[in-house]
Amino acid sequence: MTSETDMATSGEKALDLHFIEDSSITEVMRHRAQSLQRSAQKRQEGERLLLPHEAVYRLDFTNQELTFVRWSVSLTGHGRVVVTGISQLWTPDLTNLMTRQLLEPVGTFWRNADDPEDMPHKCLEADIQEFGERIAELAKVRKVMYFLFAFKEGVEPDKVSISLEFTQV
């Protein structure tokens, strides 16, 4: 889901990109973890298996010349969501995800159990700024980028909405 709006001051267009769950890749990764567990095999050295509270999401870039503006996060209730970028370009054979393919920094957003519902979520601002800028850089060479979303401490996927706002260069 993408929306474009004119920015009044500079004439640049804003582009709002929403993270979309990639249920087919998530299922393949879950199947890999379950298969190893059933057959009592170990993962490959350096392989990163999908945990039960994680899912794969994607961003589709319709424009590849972007400047990062901000994150838009809606988090209902309490808990923590961690967004980790994946440097891997997925292929139809869905090669295994390796730990070295996970990008730093990560985006962490949370609300504590004792925080009022109308209180904004919390985040590590320097990390999410750097992460957003890195995503904009990677968009120059990609049409799609994948992410691991980890839902922790009571957060459910349907209680979270995250998008990124960019300006088109």
Overview of the structural elements:
With 169 residues, the chain is an alpha+beta fold. The protein has one domain (2-168): Jelly Rolls. The protein has two helices and ten strands; from the N terminus they run βββαβββββαββ. Strands 3-4-9-6-7-8 form a six-stranded antiparallel β-sheet. A hairpin with a 6-residue loop joins β1 (2-6) and β2. The two termini are 20 Å apart.
Entry keywords:
alpha+beta; 4-stranded antiparallel β-sheet; 2 helices; 18% helix; 169 residues; disordered N terminus; Jelly Rolls
Gyration radius from CA atoms, angstroms: 17 Å
Strand content: 35-45%
Cα shape:
globular
- Name the quaternary structure: single chain
Number of strands: 10
Number of domains: 1
As laid out across the biggest beta sheet, the strand order is 3-4-9-6-7-8
Number of helical regions: 2
Low-confidence stretches: 1-9
What sequence of helices (H) and strands (E) makes up the elements? EEEHEEEEEHEE
Task: Characterize the biggest β-sheet.
Answer: 6 strands, antiparallel
Known CATH architecture: Sandwich
- In round numbers, the mean pLDDT is 88
- Structural class comes to alpha+beta
Could you say what the CATH topology is called?
Jelly Rolls
